[in-house]
């Protein structure tokens, strides 16, 4: 009863989230089509039975149907066409429903990620891609369960009408299958839960590697990271394989038991003389439907594992914490970013990245932030920009014009003009755009300065992509420029040229880097240090 209540609760929860139009109509239509095809199966079994044997061996409803096919043989191909038409239509509307559910769920989760601002990149990927896919299959499993249940009752009703002794056979078979089926469902859920946790870990591994690709290569740790990732994926595959193994056994069990019992009865006890073809055919379809029931239950249980974790998003709904990020737009303050008693942890994590953190960043000054890999430098920039919200304390910023440049520049497969203009509320004229490009020596060849040129992250060098990011930020008239390993792919001459240009602008630079020695023109230096897993910002002389 508890599992039934959980399933019903999950159905209502997922239905509310998906916001898919006409879900009930689609599900009912799918069930109707599925059961029309099941009825066609019974009619086909009766038709072939009548054509192979004599209708004189039957009586009542069964004999009437068989005689009908004998008299009107053209009905046979009509039924075949109807059956496959129903099966095709059912699969199409189910697929359309699942795709629509996935679309709505992905949009819902992405909106949550943008709104709540405490998701890590790995969690965002995991919820948007993996969890939504599993939850959308919840509908497929639900429809499959409903179809199989009604088909099972239909096949059982026919067998009881044709031979009342069937109910005893079915009852014994159901009892035999109940306990092993429950065992296999529980084992399948156990491994799906394990797979969920490992899959989440694999996403964190991917994020760690991608975010730190440059440093990993520099330290020649790439083979070690690949080996670690391979180990995680091997564990994930093992859990998924075991989940599939127990689920497959559970779905095959009813058909296997039925066919095995039939083979023993017919082969050793001469039951062939009392079994009719229609009885054998419908019984096989009956237990095939039972197999689909167990398979659908297994898929429902697997989906519920993911829905259980999806509920955590609802718990996160009330933790918006917008009030912890303050923009005052005062040009008079010398402190442009003030952090007071700030505490932050990512969604679904008990680890506090920062706790009771305090720091000040000064107007038109260049401040470095350094610290070990994974110390939270990027997270700190995210909190200062308002991309992330703290759970406690606040960040106060005196300007809403904040630029950001990371190690992986944002480049669109579009025109050079589009990339420069992106995010800028002003419509900039071509002369301004070209002047900025030339100031940064964007092209060596003067003939290449074409704003309509199509570019992407393959047609530009890493240095050009970084330059484009800097130009875009300056064109947006950013007062605060946040740099996150933004010069990692630049040679010394290009880096010096960029900061020479920045020095001519009245702009506050907050620069996260692993190599502070390259910035001799910086004014301040904060270092993130650890003490018993607690992070501190220590101001160092520069």
Overview in brief:
Helices cover 61% and strands 12% of the residues. It is an alpha/beta fold.
Give your account of this protein's structure.
The protein is of the alpha/beta class and 542 residues long. It has 2 domains: 2-316, ABC transporter type 1, transmembrane domain (ABC transporter transmembrane region fold, Up-down Bundle), CATH 1.20.1560; 322-540, P-loop containing nucleotide triphosphate hydrolases (Rossmann fold), CATH 3.40.50. It is 61% helix and 12% strand. The protein has 14 helices and 12 strands. The strands form 3 sheets. The protein has a 6-stranded mixed sheet with strand order 6-9-10-4-11-12, sandwiched between helices. Helix 2 (23-52) packs antiparallel against helix 9 and helix 8 packs antiparallel against helix 9 (277-316). The protein is elongated and about 105 Å long.
Give the tags:
14 helices, alpha/beta, six-stranded mixed beta sheet, Rossmann fold, four-stranded mixed beta sheet, 542 residues, 2 domains
Give the arrangement of secondary structure elements.
Blueprint: H1 2-18, H2 23-52, H3 60-71, H4 75-116, H5 121-162, H6 166-211, H7 213-218, H8 222-268, H9 277-316, E1 325-327, E2 335-344, E3 354-362, E4 366-370, H10 377-385, E5 392-397, E6 402-406, E7 414-415, H11 416-421, H12 430-439, E8 454-455, H13 462-475, E9 480-484, H14 492-503, E10 508-512, E11 524-531, E12 534-540
Parallel strand pairs: 1-5, 4-10, 4-11, 6-9, 9-10
Antiparallel strand pairs: 2-3, 2-5, 7-8, 11-12
Helix pairs in contact: 2-3, 2-4, 2-5, 2-9, 4-5, 5-6, 5-9, 6-8, 6-9, 8-9
């Amino acid at each position: 009863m508890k599992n039934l209540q959980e399933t019903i609760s999950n159905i209502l929860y997922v239905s509310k989230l998906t916001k898919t139009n006409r879900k009930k109509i689609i599900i009912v239509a799918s069930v109707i089509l599925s059961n029309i095809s099941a009825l066609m199966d019974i009619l086909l079994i009766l038709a072939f039975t009548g054509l192979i044997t004599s209708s004189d061996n039957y009586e009542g409803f069964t004999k009437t149907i068989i005689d009908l096919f004998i008299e009107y043989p053209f009905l046979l191909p009509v039924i075949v066409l109807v059956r496959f038409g129903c099966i095709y239509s059912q699969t199409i509307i189910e697929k359309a429903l699942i795709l629509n559910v996935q679309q709505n769920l992905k949009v819902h989760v992405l909106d949550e990620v943008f709104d709540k601002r405490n998701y890590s990149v790995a969690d965002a990927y995991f919820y948007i891609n993996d969890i939504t896919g599993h939850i959308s299959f919840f509908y497929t499993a639900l429809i499959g369960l409903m179809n199989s249940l009604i088909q099972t009752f239909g096949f059982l009703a026919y067998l009881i009408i044709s031979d009342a002794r069937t109910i005893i056979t079915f009852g014994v078979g159901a009892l035999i299958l109940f306990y092993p089926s429950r065992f296999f469902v529980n084992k399948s859920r156990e491994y799906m839960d394990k797979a969920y946790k490992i899959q989440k870990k694999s996403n964190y591994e991917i994020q760690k590697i991608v975010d730190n690709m440059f440093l990993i290569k520099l330290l020649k740790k790439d083979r070690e990271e690949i080996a670690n990732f391979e180990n995680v994926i091997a564990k994930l595959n093992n859990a998924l394989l075991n989940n599939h193994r127990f689920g497959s056994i559970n779905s095959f069990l009813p058909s296997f038991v039925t066919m095995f019992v039939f083979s023993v009865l017919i082969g050793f006890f001469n039951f062939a003389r009392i079994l009719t073809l229609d009885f054998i055919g419908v019984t096989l379809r009956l237990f095939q439907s039972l197999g689909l029931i167990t398979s659908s239950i297994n898929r429902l249980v697997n989906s519920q594992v993911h829905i259980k974790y999806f509920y955590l998003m609802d718990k996160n709904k009330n933790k918006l914490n917008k009030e912890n990020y303050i923009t005052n737009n005062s040009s008079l303050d010398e402190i442009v970013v003030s952090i007071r008693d700030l505490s932050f942890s990512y969604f679904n994590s008990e680890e506090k990245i920062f706790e009771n953190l305090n720091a000040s960043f000064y107007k038109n000054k260049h401040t470095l932030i350094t610290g070990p890999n994974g110390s939270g430098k990027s997270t700190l920039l995210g909190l200062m920009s308002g991309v992330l919200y703290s759970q406690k304390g606040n960040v106060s910023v005196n300007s809403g014009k904040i630029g950001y440049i990371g190690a992986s520049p944002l480049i669109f497969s579009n025109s050079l003009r589009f990339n420069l203009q992106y995010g800028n509320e002003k419509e900039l004229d071509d002369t301004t755009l070209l002047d900025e490009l030339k100031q940064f020596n964007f092209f060596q060849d003067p003939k290449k300065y074409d704003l309509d040129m199509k570019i992407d992250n393959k047609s530009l060098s890493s240095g050009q992509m970084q330059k484009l990011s800097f130009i875009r930020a300056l064109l947006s008239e950013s007062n605060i420029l946040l740099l996150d390993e933004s010069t990692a792919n630049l040679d010394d001459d290009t880096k010096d040229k960029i900061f020479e240009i920045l020095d001519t602008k009245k702009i506050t630079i907050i620069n996260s880097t692993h190599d502070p020695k390259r910035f001799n023109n910086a004014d301040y230096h904060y270092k993130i240090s650890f003490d018993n897993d607690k992070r501190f910002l220590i101001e160092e002389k520069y």
